[in-house]
Amino acid sequence: MNALRNSVRLLGNLGEDPKVKRLESGKVVANFNIATNEIYRDSNGNKQTETTWHRLVAWGKNAEVAEKYLKKGKEIAIEGKLTNRQWEDKNGEKQYMTEVVVNSLLMLDKASN
């Protein structure tokens, strides 16, 4: 079996416009969130929707595409890998974050005229 060991595919809607930065090194990075929904029936047969938020980071061309075309509410599909970051906040407490580094990005909304 020759499968990727750290691969994530998500289909969801943007919760906000991407936040894009240009670093001193010249690299471009975009940070944004998407919501994915799972729809199921509870034990009483009622339809339920559970929303999960995912933090995404895109670099280079993907960041430039995100900056130019992605807006809050747009539906996208991404493929990427999970990463974990940690840092100390101003109080000396360790903080942790899991995010998806975007390898490919597909816009699913129709282009607006």
From TrEMBL:
Q: Which domain of life is it from?
A: Bacteria
- What stretches pass through the bilayer? none
Any one biological process term the GO annotation gives:
DNA replication
Q: Which Pfam families match?
A: SSB
- Indicate whether DNA-binding appears among the record's keywords: yes
- Record flagged with keyword Thylakoid: no
Q: Which InterPro entries match?
A: NA-bd_OB-fold, Primosome_PriB/ssb, ssDNA-bd
Q: Which UniProt keywords apply?
A: DNA-binding
Q: Write down the PANTHER family for this protein, in alphabetical order.
A: SINGLE-STRANDED DNA-BINDING PROTEIN, SINGLE-STRANDED DNA-BINDING PROTEIN, MITOCHONDRIAL
Q: What is this protein called?
A: Single-stranded DNA-binding protein
